[in-house]
Design brief:
This protein is mostly helical. It contains 11 helices and 2 strands, in the order H-H-H-H-H-H-H-H-H-H-E-E-H. It is elongated, with a radius of gyration of 26 Å.
Length: 411
Amino acid sequence: MSLKVFQKNDDLNFIPGEIPYYSTLTKYLILVGQHPQQSNLSRKTILTILLISLISLLVPSFITITTSFRDKDMDAGLECVPILVTILVSVIKIVNLNANREQFRTIYELVVEEWRSLRQTDKIHVLDDISGQGSKVAQLYRSTLITFLVFFALLPMMPLFLDVILPLNETRLRQQVFRLEYLVNGDKYFYPIYFHSVWTSVTIVIIITTVDSFYMVLSHHACGLFAICGNEIKQATNSTAENIHNIVEKRAMYQQLKKCIMSHKRAIHFYELIDDMNRNSFLLQLGMNMIGISVTSVQTFIYQTVMNLNRRAEAFRIGLFLVAQQFHLLFNSLPGQRLVDHSLQLAQNIYDSEWYRTPVRIQKLLIIMQMRSGIPCTLTAGGLYDMNIQNFGMIFKTCMSYFTMLMSLRE
């Protein structure tokens, strides 16, 4: 079925944009100026616009924090922290991708090469299935964050709509997307401030969804490589174990196993490239996420308990922000868990094969391969934290501990 992808392009110079699972992501990468085939001028121009947009929101954030410290208004300072964290996470993501663009180009070329080499074989369906799963996860992630963005951006407009639909004797209080200090009259310049907040919010969400979606698809591509390697081993041992009677057949099987080992080596190399490119970025993002979730939890609790009588819209907005942060951390942990599972599954595939019926020379190769596959390929944050579901739960518990500490400080 996947061979239909390549029927329109008989030459070998296709690009990931021609693969269904990469076509949408290619557009997103172009939008943020990080596509490997973009010109330097285009890339630098788009990157400059994005960074200026993010910095333009950093300025009122720092002003708000400074003002809150001066006035000893801890609640205002806490409300600004998640905004600041989200901006910095976006900057880390886009700067990291741009700083590692040569490494990203190498990964990009390896993806092309792998699809190109497998398109004429019966193994393409394995890569197709797992890449399809990664594409669905990335699509769900993008759709959910964009939905959060729409609700988040439209909430400040609700009082204006209600004034038209259900007017009161007085004008309803208007709230901005972010409660930040712009050093101007908020009511007089409501719409310029609102559109600036929406523009920067859209910029943040586009950067986060683009970088994270491509990370998810690449991780699933690595999972596909491990799955292909496992299938090759089972086919090589099961199909020929009963028919080895002479030196020629033994050599043929030995050559097949050598190809399996090379496939395993390519899968590990691909995983190492992804891990090396993201590990420092993940460490910074993880720290920011923990701060953001802890502080936003405090805000949500305050608005839902202390101010729930007249600030329900604010409580809903902050709660939405909290869910989005948790969702972001969860979906950054899922690809790492999938990669661990698939890399360890290779050892089980070797065990399930008919290795015991192969020549001793081949069994020695399989033992070496099984020893390596017993070491999980783990995506890490700075080599200190493994990106998986178990650690996601641990981080969530840690954030709740920080939440308790912040609540005690506030009291």
